[in-house]
Amino acid sequence: MVSHQRVFVGNLQQFNMVEIGPTTTAGDVLSLMDAQGALNGWAGSGGWMVFEVAQDFGMERPIRSYELLADVQASWLKEKTVNYFVLKLTPLATPLSRSAIPSSAPTHSGYVEWEAKRGKWSKRWLRLREHNLWLAKRDNGKDEVLLCSLSNFDAYVVTRNHKSPKPFAFAIKSTDNMSFFENTDDYLHTFSCSEKDGSVWLEKILIARSYVLYQERHVLFSPKSSNENATAALSRSGTKKYASNSRPIHPHVPLPPLLAPKSNNAVFEPGSLLAKQL
Fold first, then answer.
1. Tens of pLDDT, residues 173-184
2. What is the full DSSP assignment across the chain?
3. What is the pTM of this model?
């Protein structure tokens, strides 16, 4: 299924309409917009990336160049059409590039403020290990519980005004649709910490997710089939028309040899009554 989506550049003042199909990646959109000159003249540091703006939750995340945009759209709530894609310059472009995927997933740990319930925050020890996020009351990890797996969760920056106890807020949100969750509290987890710690947490989790994608969805990294262009060319080819003064050429089929005449010039078969009368 193909959809037409507005893709903004830098802010909401400029956008291009982009056709997004089942195999369209964020890198494809970047190349298209760059070829159209949409990325010229912008100031900033880092490289260009497509961002998913989850406006319904007030957060955003960078989309890796090899991710399928149709998969991102599938996670959006259909009854809310407020989410969109925007191209931004970001220092995360380098650590999230295809060439920067590590040979093993990173680990990290530290105290953060965790929003246990809406508006209620508790200090917790957060640990990233074994491609999962674990939560505990103390740093000895004796009572830690599995919070989520990065197989289907990713890191987001909270952009909406959030009454968090620390200046930086980030979230871990499922990349699946919310309809897959019986308990919607498991769909999203929000944390707060200093900006310095938050930047480290965000990068570590994003890189760990890149590693999981590479290991579990290796098809995203396979080159597109070399037969695609040939198939497309065939689908565009029309029926051949012959010139009005020409005819289709058929292959030559040799005819069987004619029966040789009999040596006695007999007209009727030997033994027949007519032959006896002659």
1. 999 988 888 888
2. --EEEEEEESEEEEEEEEEE-TT-BHHHHHHHHHHTTTTTT---SSEEEEEEEETTTTEEEEEPTTSBHHHHHHTS-TT----EEEEEEEGGGTTTSGGG--SS---EEEEEEEEEETTEEEEEEEEEETTEEEEESSTT-TT-EEEEETTSEEEEEE-S----SSSEEEEEEESS-GGG-SSGGGSEEEEEE-HHHHHHHHHHHHHHHHHHHHHH-GGGGSPPPTHHHHHHHHHH-------TT--PPPPP-PPPPPPPPPTT--SSPTTSHHHHH-
3. 0.78
